[in-house]
Design brief:
Blueprint: E1 17-24, E2 27-41, E3 44-50, E4 56-59, E5 66-69
Antiparallel strand pairs: 1-2, 1-5, 2-3, 3-4
């Protein structure tokens, strides 16, 4: 099994929440992604999950992802 790592070298796992940069024209922001799948493709890996609005999304921009919470640290599990 091959492991996938974020920008800081932390292993990315299913259930983690990460952010990654997005850009449209001159507008830039950080997009949230709750990871529910990691797929291997020819060019590398794809992260799939839900964004902050609950929409299904995916990214291949794994080199710029940063893990912000893990399932063990998530506050909303109270």
């Amino acid at each position: 099994m091959t492991y996938v790592f974020d920008f800081f070298g932390k292993q990315i796992k299913v259930g983690d929440t990460c952010v990654y940069p997005m850009r449209r024209g001159s507008k830039m922001w950080m997009q949230i992604l709750r990871i529910d799948g990691i797929e291997e493709i020819d060019e590398g890996y794809t992260l799939t999950g839900c964004d902050g609005n609950g929409r299904r999304t995916r990214t291949r921009n794994i080199g710029n992802c940063v893990i912000v919470t893990t399932p063990e640290l998530r506050i909303d599990k109270v």
